[in-house]
């Protein structure tokens, strides 16, 4: 498929998003940008959050991960669902009771200003890295399949991508995203199901026949219960997935900001629980697609793309969709699905980072009314520039599968948040607030040392994403040690 046609499709797509932005973003106030006036229908938020929760990482990287890990990712997804239950019945009621805009305001009310800034700082670092991971993936695809043909530098591709997001979020922020995410989720899911249908047709197999094939069975193992020392061991994956969801969704301004636009706590609960159910089914579909991609590539001798000599299974899906003789319609559908998946999470990250920085660091709500909107817009531009710089740096750093890198980072940066919120919710102790940032940093250091040396210290044991739990425990213990007597 010609690069010019792909670029044209992308520009048309973003033109539609900008039109939606204009139609729904007439109110330029900070209340609308940050909270959407708490008027979003829960079912619209829930459907839109499917795309935001999955992102371009799931769209491309999860299918590409099947070759090395089979369907073991489903174990983590089962843990995700348990995490959503905790969010629905513990965190959602708490946030609505306090009527807060940034969830890290809870830490200020519970412990003090240092805890507030520490929590917001770890969110800011976490979400900036995760949003950068996700946008790095989609810009790498755009670079490989479009802009390399014109010798356009990767840096320009990144600037182009972030500028498009800024263009439709700069006015009304979260209010616009509730509606644009709905469109983006639909396009992403349609692209996946359409691709599955076309590949099955090309393989000349029915759904039931592919499930019985030897090729499929070599990828489809879900439960890994044989070796406790293995990273893929069932219990480790489930616990890791559960606490990743609690931390990356329940303690994350990006994800919770949309939930807090619902009319009340009851509707927000329905949103979270329904999302948990749907994500189990959707992730299973993505893994099924991954198996089909490798079966198709093997049958038709399609090579997995490489960048700089490194094999990139993340790029197999776009390689087959765009160059695998599936036809022009599926190529168009894939591009729409990819950009929908990628930008549905990236745009909300840009908005939530702007919200958190404005409220938690700049205390924007206590500044002069006449300066608030201008300050928010300045922050929005600044966050966009920072996002560009981080994505460009990843070009020279990342070697692993993106989904693995994403989850590994979260186990470190979200640990202090998990410990802080847990200590606040499940104890009644007050703490010496000025020492909190030191406890958080020490927790990171201890977690890193433990993870680095586990193989030698524990007879070959390898930590998976459950290291996040230990990270939170280190923070919890540290907070207990600085409690007021």
Descriptive notes:
The protein has 485 residues and is mostly helical. It has 20 helices and two strands. The protein has helices spanning 3-24, 30-35, 42-69, 73-98, 105-110, 113-145, 154-169, 174-203, 207-212, 214-217, 234-250, 253-259, 265-299, 316-323, 328-361, 369-394, 402-413, 415-426, 436-457, 467-481, and strands at 306-307, 310-311. The protein has a two-stranded antiparallel ribbon. The chain is globular and about 70 Å long. The relative contact order is 0.19.
**Overall shape:** globular
- Helical segment count: 20
- End-to-end Cα distance, whole Å, is 69 Å
Radius of gyration: 22 Å
Poorly predicted residue ranges: none
Largest sheet: 2 strands, antiparallel
SSE sequence, one letter per element: HHHHHHHHHHHHHEEHHHHHHH
Structural class: mainly alpha
């Amino acid at each position: 498929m010609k690069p010019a046609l792909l670029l044209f499709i992308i520009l048309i797509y973003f033109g539609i998003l900008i039109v939606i932005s204009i139609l729904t973003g007439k109110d330029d106030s900070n209340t609308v940008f940050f909270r959407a006036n708490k008027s979003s229908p829960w079912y619209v938020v829930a459907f839109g959050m499917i795309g935001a929760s999955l992102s371009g990482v799931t769209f491309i990287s999860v299918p590409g991960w099947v070759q090395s890990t089979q369907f073991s990712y489903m174990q983590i997804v089962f843990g995700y669902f348990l995490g959503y239950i905790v969010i629905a019945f513990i965190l959602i009621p708490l946030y609505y009771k306090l009527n807060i805009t940034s969830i890290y305001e809870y830490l200020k009310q519970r412990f003090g200003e240092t805890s507030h800034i520490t929590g917001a700082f770890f969110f800011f670092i976490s979400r900036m890295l995760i949003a950068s991971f996700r946008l790095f993936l989609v810009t790498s695809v755009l670079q490989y399949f479009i802009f390399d043909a014109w010798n356009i530098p990767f840096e320009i591709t990144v600037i182009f991508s972030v500028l498009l997001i800024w263009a439709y979020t700069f006015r009304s922020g979260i209010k616009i995203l509730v509606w644009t995410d709905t469109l983006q989720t639909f396009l992403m899911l349609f692209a996946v199901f359409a691709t599955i249908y076309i590949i099955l047709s090309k393989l000349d197999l029915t759904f039931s026949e592919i499930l019985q094939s030897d090729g499929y069975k070599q990828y489809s193992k879900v439960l890994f219960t044989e070796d406790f020392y293995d990273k893929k061991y069932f219990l480790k994956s489930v616990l890791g997935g559960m606490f990743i969801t609690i931390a990356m969704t329940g303690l994350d301004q990006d994800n919770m900001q949309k939930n807090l636009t619902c009319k009340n706590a009851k509707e927000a609960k329905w949103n979270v629980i329904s999302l948990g159910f749907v994500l189990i089914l959707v992730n299973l579909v993505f893994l099924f697609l991954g198996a089909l991609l490798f079966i198709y590539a093997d049958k038709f001798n399609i090579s997995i793309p490489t960048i700089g000599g490194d094999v990139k299974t993340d790029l197999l899906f776009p390689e087959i969709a765009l160059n695998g003789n599936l036809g022009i319609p599926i190529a168009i559908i894939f591009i729409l699905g990819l950009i929908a998946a990628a930008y549905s999470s990236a745009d909300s990250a840009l908005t939530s980072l702007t919200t958190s920085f404005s409220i938690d660091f700049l205390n924007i709500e206590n500044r002069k009314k006449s300066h608030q909107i201008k300050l928010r817009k300045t922050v929005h531009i600044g966050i966009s520039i920072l996002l560009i710089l981080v994505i460009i740096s990843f070009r020279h750093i990342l070697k692993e599968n993106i989904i693995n890198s994403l989850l590994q980072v979260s186990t470190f940066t979200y640990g202090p948040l998990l410990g802080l919120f847990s200590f606040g919710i499940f104890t009644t102790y007050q703490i010496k607030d000025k020492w909190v940032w030191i406890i958080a940093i020490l927790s990171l250091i201890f977690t890193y040392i433990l993870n680095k040396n586990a193989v030698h210290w524990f007879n070959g044991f390898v930590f998976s994403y459950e290291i996040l739990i230990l990270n939170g425990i280190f923070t919890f213990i540290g907070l207990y040690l600085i409690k007021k007597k």
